[in-house]
Write a structure and sequence with these properties.
single chain; 230 residues; mainly alpha; Glycerol uptake facilitator protein; 8 helices; 75% helix; globular
Length: 230
């Protein structure tokens, strides 16, 4: 009876932890995409200057990343990104049974975020983007963007959530400007942005290549980080 009670308690605690992770990742991912897509739509409605649009989009995204990481780190780790979660698993920071919880919450959260952002500005909830983001130069820049994101997270994680939040937010803000892909660095975000035919969208034909580039960047970052430990 004691053994059964012990396992029931463990099962309950495990379920509560998964629920907590799901809620944190869903809310964070949804708000992040709302900030990315919503700020892009707002900028597009206020100016025809592409540089001003990109600046507004970059600042809003960086600001959102900072406050979301700081506020949700203690709930779920504030990954908001399947490849950040994958890197955490490969680095033995989370267990394999949590991967479906993270991935599901992140993808559903990002899709919810893009639908709400579209709704805020009176667009259809779901619409395929016609914005082309193609070319080997864009592909390579997305590899570098994702490599940089994973590398920075792992090199600053010991400094606490504020340092991670500051580093990630400033890197992605800069990445909007120094990469031709504008640093998606997140497959869930890439999938979500396929469904907004606005400034921040991406054509569905380009989305798979972005995800492949992001996976390569993640694997490369993990490889380099392991080499640096040796």
């Amino acid at each position: 009876m004691k053994l059964m009670k012990y396992y029931l308690i463990r099962l309950k605690n495990g379920s509560q932890m998964k629920n907590k992770i799901f809620v944190g990742e869903f809310i964070g991912s949804a708000l992040l995409v709302m900030a990315i897509v919503g700020s892009g739509i707002m900028a597009e409605s206020l100016t025809n200057d592409t540089a001003v649009m990109l600046l507004a989009n970059a600042v809003a995204t960086g600001a959102a990343l900072y406050f979301l990481i700081v506020s949700i780190s203690d709930i779920s780790g504030a990954h908001f990104n399947p490849f950040v979660t994958l890197a955490m698993y490969l680095s033995k920071r989370i267990k394999s049974q949590l991967l479906p919880v993270y991935f599901t919450a992140q993808i559903l959260g990002c899709l919810t975020g893009v639908m709400l952002a579209n709704f805020f500005f009176d667009y259809s909830l779901i619409e395929l983007s016609s914005k082309s983001r193609s070319g080997i130069n864009v592909f390579v820049s997305e590899i570098i963007a994702t490599f940089g994101l994973i590398f920075i997270i792992f090199r600053t994680i010991k400094g606490g959530k504020v340092l991670v939040a500051t580093s990630v937010a400033t890197f992605i803000t800069a990445g909007y400007w120094f990469t031709s892909s504008t640093s998606f660095a997140n497959p869930a975000v890439a999938i979500a942005r396929t469904f907004t035919n606005t400034f921040t969208g991406i054509n569905y034909l380009n989305t798979p290549f972005f995800i492949i580039a992001e996976l390569i960047g993640t694997i490369l970052a993990i490889y380099i980080l392991r080499k640096l430990k040796n």
